[in-house]
Amino acid sequence: MKTLFEKIASRTLENALSGRAKGIPFPIDKLNDSLLGILPNSMTLWAAESNTGKTRILYYLYWFWVVDYCNRADTDRNPEDVLIYIYAYEMPLDRSLALMSAAYLMDKKGMDVSDATVMGYEGKPSEELEEMLKSEEHSEFMKKLFKQTRFRVDTKYKSMIKELYTLGMELTEKIDDDELEFRQFTNPKQMVIVMTDHIGNATSPKGSMELSDFKTYSQGHMKLRNKFGFTMVPIQQANPTEENHLIPGHRQMRDTKNFFIESDGVVGAGSPYKLKIDTVDCDGLHYQIANTPHNGQRGLLDTILFLGVTKSRYGKLIPLIPVGFKGAQGIVYSDPPTIRQI
Hints:
Largest sheet: 9 strands, mixed
Structural class: alpha/beta
CATH topology: Rossmann fold
């Protein structure tokens, strides 16, 4: 008779060989190199300084892209295979979501998605974006988004855990009678992606919490990952302590240390244009940040952002990943389009 460990090991191997453990690739290749994509049974902490664009990046990667991926004919995921739960404790569901999704579709079609012509901070959306907002294509995309998504605003943390626990019980089945319960999805390709944006605002309107609260909350996330195989994506605000520190690390995330420890992967996002420096070095290339005649007096504002994988259970760390990022629209490019080498 097999021991429980042997049964779990056998089932894990069977799932891996059958493709059940397969996730969804990121649209950014270097993230796939280190995190191996958006995986079931994982917890990935994303952290950044305030006003860096972390919410928009995560909506792009874990929402727009995932839904688009599931609806493509050339993938092995169907829309009914993937459920997305978004607990929006910081960014409300408003017109900005429609603008971001419309910009996503414009970018996908190869149309111009720049601050000046689409949705600059100083002006109203362009005529092209307004046309996309009114189009049947955008209407259908929004329907697809919310068909796969459960969007929650101002949900208490305990209510969130209760809702997800109930969902997990509905979607999974117990496969062992031993004392230690072991469950798996009844649909082999099922994935549940849970974004909490951001967890520091989960119970307090002011966002102030004690470190003991974070320990409890990270354990709640971890149990959902372990028990049901959910894909947990906590988003947190970092507290940089060094003026020129580009990517937040463990010490900078003082209020997220338990999430840092218990997460399978940690990604920090940094905006070089927020630092008091003129250039930043990545992989031997120097990127110009300051406004000069060479770059049209714009520098790299909202066109480049660095992601740093500071922790990975697979041991594949990439210190800095430069990506193109249109902050106003939440558009992410695998290769920065306006980098200047000097």
